[in-house]
Specification:
- By secondary structure, this protein is mainly α.
- The chain is 70% helix and 1% strand.
- It contains 15 helices and 2 strands.
- It has a two-stranded antiparallel sheet with strand order 1-2.
- A hairpin with a 2-residue loop joins strand 1 and strand 2.
- Helix 2 packs across helix 6.
- The longest helix is centred in the C-terminal third of the chain and has 28 residues.
- The radius of gyration is 18 Å and the shape is globular.
- The two termini are 23 Å apart.
- The model has no long low-confidence stretch (mean pLDDT 96).
- Bound molecules: geranylgeranyl diphosphate.
- Geranylgeranyl diphosphate binds next to helix 4, helix 8, helix 9 and helix 10.
Length: 297
């Protein structure tokens, strides 16, 4: 079947799974439930949960119930990061995923709280998988540790801290690489590592997967920088030129467009070559990674 059709099917499946863990909009605090649901249901690509599931399948994972908890948890963490990133104290953006940002619709206080709520709800959703009949607590424990580490101070939040602190300052290639590894690649590593862990992959293979996802993550962020320069608000669903507005040093600013495009291609192809060293079936995963080189949103 054509790749685009297969991808759409996986996105629809992922959304069904993610939405099933969202709160009902009722009770005195229903505004926060509504703000959480608004943020999560905005049309995202669902890349992280899809990567998690494909890696799980690649390592022969069978029972998906526990996996579903983690797919939703990771998308909640990713969504909270976008909600907070758009706040006036950060990028101060009005549009995301083709609609008004959460704080524009619900106000700044609710924007902050919706991000907080999604983060807590993510860990509640992941921890609830201990109660799944037949679940393996040791694997869930390992997956929880990865989720915490990759999203926290030595992962996404750590990268964002350096990104914010370095705004408007010159950055060298090493510092930029540090930011991209933590801010962006960490959550992709998290996705693929958890998929492998929950499928029961050997530790050595989980580490190999971390390396592959790291390359995909860096390529993904460089492509994000490229799109911020060459795309349109309509196509991207969020403002373009945001990096320039915020005086951000990016890979594109440092190296120019042609070299950046080449880096995305090279890193994605390296990731795919590493993936090919596994005998396991991974056709869709390979196509997905290669498709990111040419992504337009
Ligand atoms: C952690 C407090 C706190 C703030 C947020 C990492 C981060 C910190 C914010 C996210 C903003 C950003 C540009 C992150 C880099 C990763 C990235 C390119 C995110 C966009 O991911 P997509 O394209 O988004 O997968 P969709 O909307 O498709 O899910």
């Amino acid at each position: 079947m054509e790749f685009k059709v297969e991808l759409k099917r996986r996105q629809t499946d992922a959304e069904k799974i993610i939405y099933s863990f969202l709160p009902a909009e009722e009770g005195l605090q229903k505004t926060i439930f509504s703000a959480m649901n608004y943020s999560v249901k905005a049309p995202g690509k669902r890349l992280r949960p899809i990567l998690m599931r494909e890696t799980f399948l690649m390592f022969g994972g069978q029972d998906e119930v526990v996996l579903h908890h983690f797919m939703a948890a990771l998308e909640f963490i990713h969504t909270y990061s976008l909600v907070h990133d758009d706040l006036p104290a950060m990028d101060n953006d009005d549009y995301r995923r083709g609609r008004e940002t959460t704080h524009k619709v619900y106000g700044e206080a609710m924007g902050i709280l919706a991000g907080d709520a999604l983060l807590h709800h993510a860990f509640d959703t992941a921890a609830a998988s201990f109660a799944v009949p037949g679940a393996n607590p040791a694997l869930i424990g390992r997956a929880l540790k990865i989720l915490t580490e990759k999203s926290g101070i030595n992962g996404m939040v750590g990268g964002q801290v350096v990104d914010v602190e370095m705004e408007g300052k010159p950055l060298n290639a090493q510092q930029l690489d540090f930011i991209y590894r933590l801010k962006t690649a960490a959550l992709l590593e998290c996705a693929m590592m958890i998929g492998a862990v929950l499928a029961g992959a050997e530790n050595e293979d989980v580490l190999k997967i971390e390396g592959i996802a790291g390359k995909v993550g860096i390529a993904f962020q460089i492509q994000d920088d490229i799109l911020d320069q060459i795309s349109t608000t309509e196509e991207l669903g969020k403002p373009v030129g945001s990096d320039e507005k915020n005086h951000k040093m990016t890979y594109v600013v440092l190296n120019g467009l042609p070299q950046s495009e080449e880096a995305v291609k090279q890193m994605s192809e390296e990731a795919v070559a590493d993936l090919d060293s596994f005998a396991n079936e991974h056709g869709f995963l390979k196509e997905l990674i290669l498709s990111l080189i040419h992504r337009r949103k």
